[in-house]
Design a protein that fits this description.
Shape: globular
Largest sheet: 3 strands, antiparallel
Strand order of the largest sheet: 1-5-4
Number of helices: 16
Helix content: 40-55%
Oligomer: single chain
CATH superfamily of the largest domain: Hypothetical protein af1432
Structural class: mainly alpha
Distance between the termini: 21 Å
Length: 337
C-alpha cells in the first residue's frame, strides 16, 4: 500500500465499498482510511491499481474519498462496470487466444500504464498455462507475439521501470518470474542500444530462461525451505534442459539457446552448467543473469521475505561483484534513480 503522503483534517468524507474497484485501472481520486482521528491517503489519484495494491485495498475495513471527488467517483465506477464486463468476456478466453491477439489489443490502448499492465498480464498468463500444463510442445507463435509486444511497449517510452515495478506481483512464481526477467532484460537491452532483432532474441531467451523447470519435480520447485544438495543438483540441470526443450521445438537460434543455457554462469567461473568465466559468458546470458538475481531477491519466497530494490542492488554490487557483470548492475542502478 502507498505510504502516508499527507494528512487531511476538516473535510467531509464519503465511505466506499471496495468491490467496484478494478485491477489494472488508474484510480482518478485520492483514497483514504481513518486512523485515530485523522484521514490518511493510502492511494493517490493517478495510481495504477495493480494486483498487490488491489489485494491490500480489499483488506481495509472501510475506505473513504472526499466529497468533492464524487463526480470522479461516479465516472470511475461507471467506466469500471464496463471494464468488468469486458474482463468477464476476456476471462472466458484461454491464455493462448489472448496471447495470439496481444498485438491488436495492446496497440489499441493509448495509456502506457494500461498497456504495460495488459501486456504483462497476458504474457504472465500464457507462461502460467505453459508451466501448469507441463507440455513441452511450446506455442511458438503466441510466445513470439508476446516477445514482440514486450519489445514494442518497452521501446515506447524511455523510463518505464518505475511503472513496471508498480505492476509486478510481490510473491514469487515461475511464470511471473519469467515475465519479470523478460521485462528487465529488455530494458537493459534498450539501454545497451541493441537493435530490434537483438532485443527480440534477448527478450525471447529471458522469457524462456527457466523453461527447463518443466522437467523439475514440482515438490522441489515449491519447497518451502532451503534445498538440500541433491535437490540443488537437480535444479542446476534446468538451464541445459531448457535448451533441449527449445531445440525439440525447432529453435536453432544460437543467441537464444546460449542465453538460456548460460544464464547461471558467473564471471568467476563458479556458475553452471559449463563453468564459463568472464567474457566467455555470452552477453545475453550475463544480462539475464543479473535480472534473474534481482527479481529472485526482490520477490517474496516461501523461505524468506523479499529484499527492497535498494537492498538487492546493494547486495549485488557489494557481495556479487566477482560473479555478476558490474557494468550491467550499474546500469540497473541507474534505472532506479
Amino acid at each position: 500500500m502507498a505510504k502516508v503522503v499527507r494528512l487531511i483534517i476538516n473535510d467531509q468524507y464519503l465511505p466506499l465499498k471496495t468491490d467496484k474497484f478494478v485491477k489494472g485501472e488508474v484510480v482518478p481520486f485520492d483514497v483514504y482510511v481513518k486512523r485515530y482521528n485523522d484521514f490518511v491517503i493510502i492511494i493517490e489519484a493517478g495510481t495504477l491499481l495493480n494486483e498487490s495494491l488491489y489485494n491490500k485495498l480489499l483488506q481495509q475495513e472501510r475506505i473513504y474519498i472526499v466529497n468533492h471527488d464524487v463526480k470522479k467517483l461516479k465516472s470511475y465506477f461507471s467506466h469500471s462496470a464496463m471494464i468488468s464486463l469486458d474482463e468477464e468476456k476476456m476471462n472466458k478466453l484461454d491464455p493462448l487466444s489472448e496471447a495470439l491477439a496481444i498485438k491488436e489489443k495492446s496497440s489499441a490502448m493509448s495509456e502506457i500504464e494500461k498497456r504495460l499492465f495488459f501486456v504483462y498480464s497476458t504474457v504472465s498468463e500464457l507462461m502460467g498455462s505453459i508451466f501448469e500444463s507441463g507440455n513441452e510442445k511450446l506455442p511458438l507463435d503466441a510466445l513470439s507475439g508476446c516477445v514482440n509486444e514486450i519489445v514494442n511497449v518497452l521501446s515506447y517510452k524511455t523510463h518505464v521501470l518505475p511503472i513496471i515495478l508498480k505492476i509486478l506481483p510481490d510473491t514469487y512464481s515461475t511464470h511471473n518470474h519469467s515475465t519479470n526477467v523478460a521485462y528487465f532484460a529488455t530494458i537493459l537491452g534498450i539501454m545497451l542500444k541493441m537493435d530490434n532483432e537483438e532485443l527480440i532474441d534477448l527478450s525471447f531467451s529471458a522469457l524462456l530462461h527457466d523453461i527447463g523447470k518443466l522437467r523439475i519435480d514440482e515438490s522441489i520447485l515449491e519447497k518451502s525451505s532451503s534445498l538440500d544438495d541433491d535437490e540443488f543438483e537437480s535444479i542446476k540441470h534446468h538451464s541445459q534442459m531448457g535448451c533441449e526443450i527449445l531445440e525439440q521445438n525447432g529453435i536453432e537460434n544460437q543467441t537464444i539457446l546460449k542465453g538460456i543455457r548460460h544464464h547461471h554462469e558467473r564471471l568467476d567461473g563458479s556458475g553452471y552448467p559449463d563453468g564459463l568465466r568472464g567474457k566467455l559468458i555470452p552477453q545475453n546470458a550475463r544480462i539475464i543473469g543479473v535480472c534473474d538475481v534481482f527479481d529472485a531477491l526482490t520477490t517474496n519466497r516461501t523461505f524468506r521475505e523479499n529484499y527492497t530494490s535498494f537492498e538487492a542492488l546493494l547486495l549485488m554490487k557489494r557481495e556479487m561483484h566477482m560473479q555478476l557483470d558490474e557494468k550491467l548492475v550499474d546500469m540497473f542502478i541507474q534505472l532506479h534513480r
